[in-house]
Design a protein that fits this description.
The longest helix has about 35 residues. The chain is about 60% helix and about 0% strand. It has 3 helices and no strands.
Amino acid sequence: MEDARQEVPPDTAEAIYDTLWAASEVPTRAPEGIERVMLAEDKLYVVLAVVLIIWFGLIFLLLRTDRRLDNLERELEDRIPEDASYE
């Protein structure tokens, strides 16, 4: 039985890809140090979730503060007459 890679014409991208990667394996290594601790019991995902919550909280705080500043600016513009002189 012939290998399926030999049936593909040699000038196609599939053939080139197959010849480059067919014999090689994906390099893997065992987790070391902090990686081992964070990957144990899916702690890494907990850390990522906490970081996302913090980012969303900061974005929410920034938008809320911007909205409050806009309201204060509008109130100040309404209180100060346009023809008032500051002299």
